[in-house]
Specification:
This protein has about 240 residues and is of the alpha/beta class. About 50% of the residues lie in helices and about 20% in strands. The protein contains eleven helices and ten strands. About 45% of the residues are buried. InterPro entries: ClpP/crotonase-like_dom_sf, Enoyl-CoA_hydra/iso.
Length: about 240
């Protein structure tokens, strides 16, 4: 599950409970509900900081839940349902009317990698945690919205190839070199502290959240199209 805390203009969404934060129906529903609450309370200067408790940030979809189905066909249906239910979560992060920062303090793998990739800023630990998309090793096809978001967020063709077609594990420092990660820190506490400092810096700008969200959408047109996000035509106040 996840918790929500508000400190001034900073919203903190934290994955809690199961150390691996598997993306099964309960957690996906909890994240989506929490993002909806954040969006409804947004004002000029709001910023989201996302993080997680424990060794893992998220190990991806809850495959044990899928495999526990009574039959192979029902197991496939469960997995497909989880994939589709994460789509609106990605859309919600991509359309949130405020800057978004994620402090990745543990491993973010498979579907769990979608959460960092959908944020504006990614901060990581240098001493623990990797970014990993192991679908090629698991024999699972890549969902269309995964592919679209990855293509637009990971600009290096070599980095994209290695992560998608080789299942390469990317550390925080390697992520900085690949221009996927913004900065790294030597502990979970310092990573979160840095996220707070960045959040406070961005909050002071008092940006209009609706305008911010529409500019973000304009930067990632393919992702928004696949996620069903339509860019609004805002009227300038100038």
């Amino acid at each position: 599950m996840c918790s929500l805390e508000k400190r001034g203009n900073l919203f903190f969404l934290t994955l809690t409970g199961d150390d691996q934060h598997r993306l099964g129906p309960p957690l996906i529903s909890s994240i989506l509900s929490t993002i909806s609450k954040i969006s409804s309370q947004a004002n000029a200067g709001s910023v989201l900081i996302t993080t997680a408790h424990g060794k893992y940030f998220s190990t991806g979809f809850d495959l044990s839940y899928a495999r526990s189905a009574p039959s192979p066909s029902e197991a496939i249906d469960r997995l497909k349902s989880m994939v589709e239910s994460l789509r609106p979560v990605a859309a919600a992060f991509m359309s949130l009317p405020m800057p978004t920062i994620i402090a990745v303090t543990g491993h973010a793998a498979a579907g769990g990698l979608m959460l960092p990739i959908c944020h504006d800023y990614i901060l990581m630990r240098s001493d623990h945690g990797v970014l990993l998309m192991p679908e090629v090793d698991l024999g699972l096809p890549l969902p269309d919205y995964f592919a679209a978001v990855m293509r637009e967020r990971i600009k290096s063709p070599a980095a994209l190839r290695d992560m998608m077609l080789r299942g390469v594990k990317v550390t925080g420092e390697e992520g900085v070199k690949m221009k996927i990660v913004d900065s790294v820190y030597d502990s979970a506490e310092r990573t979160i502290d840095a996220a707070v400092r960045l959040g406070e810096e961005l909050a002071r700008r008092k940006w209009n959240g609706e305008v911010y969200a529409e500019i973000r959408k304009s930067l990632y047109p393919e992702s928004c199209q696949v996620l069903g996000l339509i860019q609004k035509q805002l009227v300038s106040k100038i």
